[in-house]
Every structure is written in structure tokens, then in C-alpha cells.
Design a protein that fits this description.
13 helices; three-stranded parallel sheet; 358 residues; mainly alpha; binds tryptophan; two-stranded parallel ribbon
Amino acid sequence: MPETSRRRVLTGDTPTGSLHIGHWVGSVKRRVEIQETHDCFFLVANLHAFTTRADKPEEIRRDCIEVVRDALAMGVDPEKASIFLQTEVPAILELTYLFSMLLPYNRVMRNPTLKDELKVKGLEDNYSFGFPLYTVGQTADILAFRAHDVPVGEDQVPHLELTREVARRFNKYYCGVPDKAPDEEHESLGGVFPIPVADVGKVGRLIGTDGINKMSKSLGNSILITDTPKQVKKKLGKIYVGVDNRQPNDPGEVDPEKNPLFQYVETFIESPDEVAELRDRYARGDNIGDGVVKVRVAECISELLEPMQDRRKQYESDDVILDILHEGCRKAIAATEQTLEMAKEAASLKFFDRTISI
Ligand code: TRP
């Protein structure tokens, strides 16, 4: 398909440093697939990282490089997708300010994901002005690219809803798109912005090797892409499979549905026949315990990681990562400057040709 008729995809992450297999399952795998068929932009939301870590700029910078290195190792291809830094794209920042005028303050504060984050981080009475603003910024991340599809986890859906509202309002105020126009018709009716759709993945959440919490680097329950087969085996060996599921004297009672290890079986063992057989034998207690299943899953995870570890060698140097980001930023700037021009024109904000050169 020619570049121009492909659907455009924008997605991103707040940089957290190294990636683990939970990231692979939850988002990166999908990106590696979608880069083949869509015009993809992957954003490193380094400005969002400042919402909670404004006092740690060097750490954020390092995390940006790491997250990109690991995404490349996992198979994101810089020839196919543009990977870029949020702070290098001025149109995003400019649109954020304008979009903040299109959203009632109370509407922004009602966002359940925002409320949750403030609660979880213990910030309810003490957060920066920029904290809620990041959600408006995210609408600009997406709309600056006039993206059609936004692959995200479930928790990001409220941000997408906000984005859709901004796009509809902009198109109504400044482009004459009628109030009740169907979302799919906004562009053909002259709207600057398509109304983007959230593309929510199936497996949002991989359980960590503690068998309880979501896999997360800070909880120490993750398998990193740099882990050796030995490390993987050791970590898997520690998965807690739950008291209910371990009834050696009554193997008939074992319920693989409730067993976190079986999420790994389903996710990392490719052959459906093998999965079905393991389930069956495990449930029947047919001489197969956690140990056997763990060893098999560990093998499959290491097989998945091997090519990633090989690819990662190409990206060891920070300069290589910076070059890739630089090129990605150039492409992101080109795409978003075009949108900004259209948006300014529509909102009667175009007084001159762009007077700063980038
Ligand atoms: N808020 C997202 C997260 O923390 C990251 C993000 C920033 C994003 N801008 C985006 C995701 C635009 C999708 C689209 O994971």
C-alpha cells in the first residue's frame, strides 16, 4: 500500500527504563505487527515523565534511551516506524495549549485514569499543575499526527475518549462539521482531525513472577529481555501458583484456570495443541507438576528472547539510538507541522507562514 493511503498509528509510553516480557505481551508485540501495515509513529513521552520525576531529569533521559534500545531489540524497525521524543516536536506543545481551551476544567479532572494515578501515587492533595495537563497533552500527541488508530492498554481508554472529544469539538468549532456527524465522516466533512479509535490489545496485563501482581520492574517480579536462560528458569521456578491450585493429594482438584502459571503457558507456548495437552495432563495430575510446566515455559521464553538479545547487540551504543531518534523526530516534525498549519488555518490563527524554522 502506498504510504499515504495507509492508516496512521500513534502510540507511546512514559519512559520507565528497560523493558520486560510484560511490555512485549502488552504492547510491543502488537507494534511489531502493525508497523508492517500502518504508517506508525511511536512516541517516547519524556515530558510526561516529568509529572512525577521533575527532580530527576538525568534519570528520565537515561530511561528514554533504554526504552528505545529495548523496543528496537524486540523488533520495532526504525525503517518502518518513526520513534521520537515528545519534547522534540513543537507542534505537540502548541496544540496542547489550544486544546486545553476546548475542554472544561471539570471534564479533565473527571478522567478516571487520572484520578486513579493521583490516588495510587498518593498525590491527591499535592500535585503539580502539569499533572492533569498531561492528559490534554496526550490528546495533542495523538491529534498532532491525525492518527486513526491508537494501540493502547485498557487504562488509556479514558485518555482516548478525551481525545475524541477534543477532535469533535475542534472540527465543529473551526471546520463546520455538524454536531451530529458520525465519527467516521469527520474528515470527509472537512474536519482537520479524524476521530481516533483505541485499539485495545487482548492480553493487557501479564502477571509477574510473584504470581500475584502485574509484572513491573519496580516490584522485582519481571523477566527482562536481557535475562539469560538460567535466570529465566530461576525466576519462573519461583512463581507462586496459589494455594488453591496445589493439592498434591487430590490432583483432580487442580484448576489450571486459577493458576497464574497457565497465563504463561497460554502466552508463551506457541502450539495450541501443546497448550491443550499440558492443561489436560496438569488437571488430571498425570504425573506432571508445576516443575515440568515451569521448565517448558522457561524454554519457550528463552527462545523468544534469543533473537531479541542478538538484535540488541546492534544497538549497544547510545549514539546509534540517538541517530535513530533524531531521524524519527525529523519525520514526526514533518507530519505534525502539516497538522499544525491546517489547525491554525482552521482556527483563524494563521497570520503568516511559519516564522521559526525547524
Ligand atoms: N500515557 C501513556 C502511558 O503512560 C503514554 C502516552 C503518552 C501515550 N502519549 C500517548 C499513549 C499517546 C498513547 C498515545 O502509557
